[in-house]
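Summary for the steering committee. The consortium agreed at its last meeting that each partner would contribute one worked example illustrating the joint modelling workflow. Our contribution is presented below. We chose a case with several input lines so that the handling of multiple components could be demonstrated. No manual editing was applied between input and output; the record is shown as generated.
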Amino acid sequence: MKPPPFQYHDPKTVAEAVSLLGSLDNAKLLAGGQSLMPMLNMRFVLPDHVIDLNRVEGLSGIKEAGGVLEIGAMTRQRDIEFSDLVKTKCPLLHQAIMQIGHRQTRNRGTIGGSLCHLDPAAELPSVAAAHDATIVVAGPNGQREIKFANFPVAFMTPSIELNEMVTAIRFPLWSANHKAAFVEFSRRHGDFAIVSAAVLLEQDGGGKISRASVTIGGVAVAPVRATAVEQAITGQVASVDLFRTACESCRTIEALADVHASADYRQHLAAVLSRRALERATGLGSQAAVH
Amino acid sequence: MEEQRTIAVTVNGKKHSNEVPVRLTLADYLRTVLKLTGTHLGCEHGVCGACTILLDGQSARSCLMLAVQADGHEIMTVEGIAPSADKLHPLQEAFRDNHGLQCGFCTPGMLTTLIEFLRDNPDPTEQEVRIAISGNLCRCTGYQGIVNAALDAAKRMKSAPA
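What follows is the complete predicted structure of the assembly.
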């Protein structure tokens, strides 16, 4: 058998899951299993207890209230992909989902699982950063909320305690006619991105940008908001030249180097992909095909 | 002592009940307990797609699920695709006629993936087929025969639904 020995728990309620987390040592939560299961099969992780969240009631669903889209932590990526609500109200999330893995992995993978796994190259943390999402967490003392900006604390480490679990993600929605684009560079379709760019824009009637959010994924341990780009384009009329000049600042983002790409190359991709994302969102430029 | 659980799973329409170690993957359950060795194991960490099965009609990698997680669910494996022992499914016929397989290792995963895909998208473009099978690795065919088979199968299934 590939996975190491562990005790298996399948709680039916959040309260039960939280109580198990509080009483068991060296426990891992199993969500969609598309990251934890490979790590178990390769024995990169050796938990004494696996707490399976797949039979917990009330953790999945997509709803909108008061300008906020709330998605349950165990909502499958597939259900987000096919949600009309997501497609119309939160197009950035829809575009990002289409670039995650493959049909077989999106059928199982969950939004909460991806955010807690917090792979630096993953798409969903970038969307959460772009939208200034709020992470809803349940623990022994009830519920608390964490701004996504404070959620990543280190490499693949979210700021939740060992006795806490994520129950939902709240995305504050942008205006009905906002523009969005998610572009990434990866070696093959469905691979993790080497670098990705997520863009949200609001424009006034004359094409002037009134609000901008630009997020770069894959360059650092967590998604980085390119605030210099956001500031440079806000208040300006969208144009290819404006985007080209503004995105040059991405070349100074502190970048990781690993077997997939050097830091220099990641900075180059950050500048190119942020420009392409802005062009795609506004319908400007060549909009060269990127995956 | 290794923790065991009794699970009840419907596989290809047949009900099974077995006591299994909780750490047994669904793929190993199908292959070693039920002896349904049509489901192939390539990488065993969710990359190659050979172990793809349908869980309640949706494709999933059976190496990335525990057998205990399938308790109460319905599974379809490659053995459940053909309508009878002496008749192939139109998708299987299209694979045979278009050189959609050579060594056959990836074929179970290709077929299960395409069963779901062609059900949801009965009239696909070539590009859509290529994206649909992007999670299934084939080292023999260069994919061209598989893509042709999928497009041919779509035509056959429209004229004579299985």
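Helices of chain B lie at 26-33, 90-97, 107-120, 126-132, 144-159. The mean pLDDT of chain B is 96.
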